[in-house]
Amino acid sequence: MDDGSAETEALIGISSEDGRSHLDARNTAAEFKVYKRRWFILFVLCLLNCSNAMAWLTFAPVADQTAQYLRVSLNLVNWLSLVYIVVAVFFSLITTWVLDTLGLRFSLIMGSWLNMLGAILRVIGMLSCIPERAIFPMVMGGQTLCAFAQPFVIFAPTKLAALWFPDHQRATANMMASMANTVGLLLLLLYSVFWVLLIYDIHATIACLIATVGIRERVPPTPPSASMVTSSSEPFLQGVKLLLTNKAYVFLLVCFGSGIGVFTCFSTLLEQILCVKGYSNDFAGLCGAVAIVFGVLGAFLLGLYVDKTKKFTEVTKINMCLTSLGCSVFAVVSQLSEQKFIIGAVCAWFGFFGYSVYPIAMELGVECSYPVGEATSSGLIFVSGQIQAALYLLLLQALAKPMAESPLSVCATGTDANLSWTVPVLVMAGLCTLGTCCFVGFFHTDYRRLRAEATASPNRVTDHDCAFFLQFCV
Predict the structure, then answer these.
(1) From CA 230, how far away is CA 215, in angstroms rounded?
(2) Domain range summary for the chain, segments of one domain joined by +
(3) CA atoms within 13 A on the CB side of 7
(4) Percent helix, percent strand, percent coil in the chain, to nearest 5
(5) Which of 194, 193, 154 is nearest to 174 (CA)?
(6) What pLDDT, in 10s, does the model give residues 263-284?
(7) Could you give phi then psi for residue 192, rounded to 5 degrees?
(8) What pLDDT digit, counting tens, does each position of 207-216 carry?
(9) What is the CATH number of domain 4-16+34-216+235-456?
(10) Is the sign of the CA dihedral 159, 164, 168, 174 positive or negative?
(11) Which of 163, 216, 237, 284 has the fewest CB atoms in 10 Å of its CB?
């Protein structure tokens, strides 16, 4: 598919040879070690990502009912999700600096405390003893604190994978941490808003305590791979400059960021799109859950495949093409009534190929931008996605026009929610397809981190004190 494929195959072959003539004596005698506590840190990050995702879209699957309960308009309810995007746009660059400068441990603990405080404030705001005029401001305040926590935990998977995991486990570790965010979305679809708030509060508190007490090291005692030995990450501002002058990275930044924006719109607006055609909130939640379950399954399979083959570019391009196909089909079938099976199948397709490619694309961003810090490269992609998501949401909501008659509508807020989404979903499919075509046609890159490891890695990676955890050792 591009010039890097054959070269990557050669690099993989080189890295597997025991007697590489180009290694110096020090590296040849050396041996990288990995530590079983990397799985504990991964578990903590998964817990944080899961709980934070539950906060992000708590109200989106039941937007019309939330508007009734909080006595606000549907647009204000949408801002409970949009606040994450606004905070990400203005706060993410600071977070990437924190991750790459102050370290993973500080970032995870800071994120966990913001997450917990936001969860507690949201629950308090929903109590019956709170004055009516204070309910929405308190819920929004808690949501905003959780939004500040999101960059700390959602930028961390690539950093954790690079710091603690060997090269043959990085994509899998990134997949597990990233998909925990998606699992959080699944959990919130299974419960009512009230139970989600309580469960999320407990979940966030446990995650905060475990992170604060359990994570004690900023970095492992010894590096897990050659890239962590040979890499001297660029200073933050210099790293950003290098990224923005890297042609391959810029295409990934814009095109995959567009994909993130489309998926944010899909997750946020799914219930509003379907209820006008007579589909209940329960069915909309089920569709979201199906997309997530298939997305997690796809991510698991892709993580294993990419760890073995290192075909980051090929996998990303193929998945983006199939996602665009699914988005186009969804734009058509979502406007039909009494087509539950077809809509459910399309959501499964959309999730399997769309959600699953996220961790692979983030690893691809690190590969094409090495030795820039992992948090910086993945963080900018996420920021691009959030900016485009905000623009897309504003555009799609502006294109949704009131319907003169909506006999099939089951939207709880009545005429305020009876909007025609025919044009918006077609525009969403067009944006998804445009981003995919640009990426497939113009993205080509060499895998810089793989190259560094192929020319500088020692013979073996051993799992230090892993006697009782052999099931994790590959």
Answers:
(1) 26
(2) 4-16+34-216+235-456
(3) 13
(4) 75, 5, 20
(5) 154
(6) 888 887 888 888 888 888 778 8
(7) -70, 165
(8) 889 888 888 8
(9) 1.20.1250.20
(10) negative
(11) 216
